[in-house]
Design brief:
The structure is a homodimer of 338-residue chains. Helix content of chain A is 30%, strand content 24%. With 338 residues, chain A is an alpha/beta fold. In chain A, the strands form 3 sheets. In chain A, strands 3, 5, 6, 7, 8, 15 and 16 form a 7-stranded mixed sheet that branches. In chain A, strands 11-10-9-12-13-14 form a 6-stranded parallel sheet, with helices on both faces. In chain A, helix 6 runs parallel beside helix 7 and helix 8 packs parallel to helix 9. The termini of chain A are close together. The interface between A and B is medium-sized, with 34 and 34 residues.
């Protein structure tokens, strides 16, 4: 089968590899209907993370169950499933506590930009749709593997409540899903910080009531003006850089919480400001499975359409072009069809 | 009048200064019944903070209202009052949001180790007792100025809930009050990390169910064993050093929150661990006034006796000896009688 691998920064290849096989009774093999490129895939692509040449890359996929191990009882070949990017047994103490991304037996999906994928802990990880979904539903279902629950987790972590004024830092696909989450949670005002017109449009479609194009001090001043000098009730940091973190803390009101879901790279947490202003920081790797029942309902009922974040659809054979487009920010998020 | 001043690290003096005067209609002058030395007073004493020679020091006091400004309507001369170490109008947006320590018109009490103290924003800041309190009640009432609400805030920030297993890092007076707070909030197990027998005794009196004397990796291993490998549901970091912060994150379970109330000195927040394990960080300067009605009730009803943290009582004239005792950890907390 074909699967995407990374050999060095900027060096993405589609290679032939053996199809994955069941090696544990908790495994499942999925025939991938759609995969995609994550903002976090850009870290190794840009050389910010170490790369082992030839490593399969990609951790977001939806597809059809091909085969299951003997301990996987709730799924069978033919089921259409969403695969959370972090697997979990959904029964360990951390899972029961809602921290499925720290599952004692969990791991991370690899090789999601390919034709077949292996899922460990399939019983605890997967969720299935009622029958095969309509093709138009695939993009939104695919967001459930990572980007939508990650944005959702950021809003949960920031403690978004009905009536709040929420600021979202970052207009990547996660930030846009953060806007969607905050709006769904009843935020009265959702302020998207974005300089890019196409992203601003999606933000508004997702429920942003305001867009602030300025950054840094000017951005903070704009938020201050919008909030009568008070600051935001909750802030979603959806990037993972030090600039984004500083921006988030600069606009958070005293007593609020900054949610964060972007993998931190070079982030120096402003602990003195946190202390002086009682601004908390919460978040991390999204416990996707925890949110899936609720979010799958939102998607299949048509209440939300997070699939809008996919502004580019490419055949798997053009995966390298997909990486370039996301790296150059000419694409928001690229869906790959095997 | 006499008031304590600091001239350089280690140089504490009792000096004659003019009695404070009402200069704003929101001011009140308090005749101090009791003041005390705070762990945070040791930062400048030890040279960790800059010192302006001759600065009055001390921010915790209770006493009797001597005089009030024209806009102070709820208090009059003769009232016995608790003075929160950070003043607030209790009406600004931050106060209404529960972040009184970030009040737009607030400030910090100075000169609390003296005979008379000035309180700005007296109407919003002060709370009074029903009549003059019994002398035996003074120590516990004095803890309401800072140390008890600060420990309480740490437990609130860490999200302590009924049935939780809570770890308290730091066996200073704040940490001990954190133990008391966690126990009052219904924690099933409160694990105090303490190596000092007298402090362990107070921790147990305050509701600690377990004491762990080990620190660092050994301390973390002991907590892990106590929690079946899971970690604590909530952790209270009551010191402010990097070691204490690392200890706190090392024992917090995935999905939990570390509360922090010790003024951070050289703290490098372990953001990678926070992210990987979804452990939040929340807290800061305690919004004392927010908690005072509830905590004053707990004290005056005799439900709690936080005054036990005062293991040393000295006349104001011996304030310098009080600092030495706290610096050398021969005293937990020193009460000063003018």
């Amino acid at each position: 089968m074909r699967v995407t691998t990374i050999h060095a920064p900027g060096d993405i290849r589609l290679e032939e590899r053996p199809e994955p096989e069941i090696t544990a009774p908790t495994d499942a093999v999925i025939k991938i209907t759609a995969g995609c490129i994550c903002g976090s895939d850009l870290w190794p692509y840009r050389g910010a993370n170490d790369v082992t040449p030839g490593t399969p890359i990609g951790h977001e996929m939806v597809g059809v169950v091909e085969e299951v191990g003997s301990e996987v009882r709730s799924f069978r070949p033919g089921d259409f499933v969403v695969v959370p990017f972090c697997t979990c047994d959904n029964t360990c103490p951390h899972c029961r506590h809602g921290a499925q991304s720290a599952c004692l037996h969990g791991g991370m999906i690899a090789g999601g930009q390919g034709e077949y994928g292996l899922v460990s802990q399939a019983e605890g990880s997967l969720v299935k749709t009622d029958g095969p979904p309509d093709a138009t539903m695939i993009p939104s279902l695919l967001t459930l593997a990572d980007v939508f629950p990650t944005g959702w987790h950021c809003a949960v972590s920031a403690g978004v409540r009905k009536g709040d004024t929420v600021v979202v830092v970052g207009d990547g696909a996660v930030g846009l899903c953060g806007v969607l989450a905050a709006a769904q949670m009843g935020a009265e005002r959702v302020i998207a910080m974005s300089r890019h017109e196409p992203r601003q449009q999606i933000a508004r479609a997702f429920g942003a009531t305001h867009v602030v194009a300025e950054r840094g001090k000017e951005g903070a001043a704009a938020i201050k003006e919008l909030t009568d000098g008070v600051g935001a009730d909750a802030v979603l940091e959806c990037v993972g850089t030090d600039d984004a973190m500083r921006q988030a803390f600069a606009v958070a009101r005293p007593g609020s919480t900054v949610g964060f879901v972007g993998v931190p790279h070079g982030v120096d947490v402003p602990v003195a400001r946190m202390f002086a202003k009682n601004i908390g920081l919460a978040g991390g790797v999204a416990p996707v499975r925890r949110y899936l029942p609720e979010l799958l309902d939102l998607v299949t009922s048509g209440t939300v359409n997070p699939g809008l974040v996919f502004d580019t659809v490419l055949p798997l054979s053009e995966v390298a072009a997909g990486y370039r487009a996301m790296d150059e920010r000419t694409a928001i998020k690229v869906l790959l069809e095997p």
